[in-house]
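User: I'll paste a sequence; please echo it back and then give the predicted structure.

Assistant: Echoing your sequence first, then the prediction.
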Amino acid sequence: MQRTASAVWRGSLKDGKGIISTQSGVLKDAQYSFSTRFESGIGTNPEELIAAAHAGCFTMALSAQLGNANLTPESLETTADVKFEKTDEGFTVTAIHLTTRAKVPGANASSFETAATNAKNGCPISRLFKGNTQITLDAKLV
């Protein structure tokens, strides 16, 4: 399996603009720029896309982990907050905090916590950042 995305940039870092597109077409010519990354301009940025990827990946992994415990979620809602800051090496993603709220009929706190921890540690995006970025989790049944 292989997934593809592309970026085109025109101009200098501060004054230029770019577009990002994905193979699936879900993102097609999505605008990004210095202001969308380092200020509050309209458009996307790589860190926002990482947050979306991590939230989606973790949530699917949590559904799988719950399924392994014979539990079917009614709903799983996850937010990923990506911390992007300047370090000695340059701008770096230094932390990702996952917050998930779940409605899972029949789940108890212990089985849910185990599933959530396994999902956090096992999803491909978490593994991508393992050892480089602190990943924390706040997972609760509602």
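The chain has two domains: 5-38, 46-141. Residues 5-38 form one domain.
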